[in-house]
User: Fold this.
Amino acid sequence: VALPELDTETWKQLAESALEQRLRAHAPYSGFRVGAALLTADGQIITGCNVENASYGLTLCAERVAIASAVAAGQRRFRALAIAAETSPPPRPCGACLQVIAEFCSEDFPLVLVNGAGERERYRLADLLPHAFRLKTLE
Ligand code: THU
Assistant:
């Protein structure tokens, strides 16, 4: 079931949450701090940040931390995702995160990518990951 498009105020709140959350990143190796904020179907915001490790390859991206936190909190239906970092243009989610997003979200799932300078980019999931791997078609 398609959920209605978000209003401007909700997008703003979600972007603010992602920007705030990036300050909690544990990124001593790259110095690249990322925040993610997921809006659930029932209107909650669940956030994540990247968590790096001295064994570099164990690093968790902000988006996957947000999704895992949501699932662990019993949430699996999402309306939108905001992702924040300092870079210009704003950060595009990596391929691994896109595949994890695609596990729970349909092709038209809306994302906003933001940075502290106020730049915003809007995408649908299929813009960033067309033809995602799926075992079955999402309803
Ligand atoms: N990172 C994310 O958190 N999300 C992405 O989609 C790409 C990269 C993090 C991982 C690492 O801590 C830092 O950015 C630099 O790669």
Q: What stands out?
A: The first helix runs from residue 8 to 21.
